[in-house]
Amino acid sequence: MNILDLDHSLTAQAPVAQRLADGRATRLDLLALGPKLRLWSTERNYQRFVKHLQQRPKPSAHSPEIFFVGSGDYHHLTPALLSGLSEPVTLIHFDNHPDWVRFAPRRHCGSWVNRALQLPFVQRVITLGPCSDDLQSPQFKGANLRALSRGTLQLFPWQHAPSKVWGRIGDGAGHQQRENLLHWRNLADQDWPAFIDQLIQSLPTTAVWITIDKDVLASEDAATNWDQGGMRLTHLLHALRALASNKRVVGIDVCGEFAKAPHSHVLKRWEAKSDQPPLDRWSETDLLRNATTNEALMSLFEELFA
């Protein structure tokens, strides 16, 4: 298990500290690079991260690589974690945001799904759980609806009203178009075990990579730098167990810790202030939920992949 220490958010948590102490996890010190990567990154700094990443210990041939990454502001690092793969995979993406914006910088936490779709071995990206206002008039916000139309991207909100669009997008696994509205297949209305079983049967590959931003979870289960979704931890754990039981999991990355960021870059300060809720909304008691959730995730990974 790899702890990518970019922002101090993980190492003080008891579940992480215990595993670092007894050797079940390995820390990669990226604190000097963390501020340069947060929210978005230049290509030069992104490649510096890739070079640092090569220093991590290699897993055994039959074990998936598992990464805990820190704040969701670093979700755009996921394509770098995937880059060592050579076989076709489906990327299962749990998130409160679709991260599909086309006009954001190439290495941006709001646009990284587009980079993942460009990787030759990624056959499909399936995003589960958004509730955010990114789905309100998505074309005005730069959404990659072409990928949705092609079916290389499927999106299932946790709960969201129909989205207004212009032009023909067509129907997909997670939506139906009726005139100028996309009506979503909201997961909150589904029989969760039946939905997960159906999803697994529809996957185009035997191998999957799972990427989790804990802002997909309700505030009862996580406290992050972003607005929280509605999925409960029990739903997430059930899905992870089902995926591991029926598919070959080649990797997992988890982000969505809470970490204050004294941005030195003026554009990052502006973006954080514009897009993220106030930093003082969480108490220390709230933040303890992250450690509890991480303990549940780590224990499950150890059970499934030991």
TrEMBL record:
State the InterPro entries in the record.
Answer: Ureohydrolase_dom_sf
Give the protein name, as stated in the record: Arginase
Q: Which organism is it from?
A: Pseudomonas endophytica
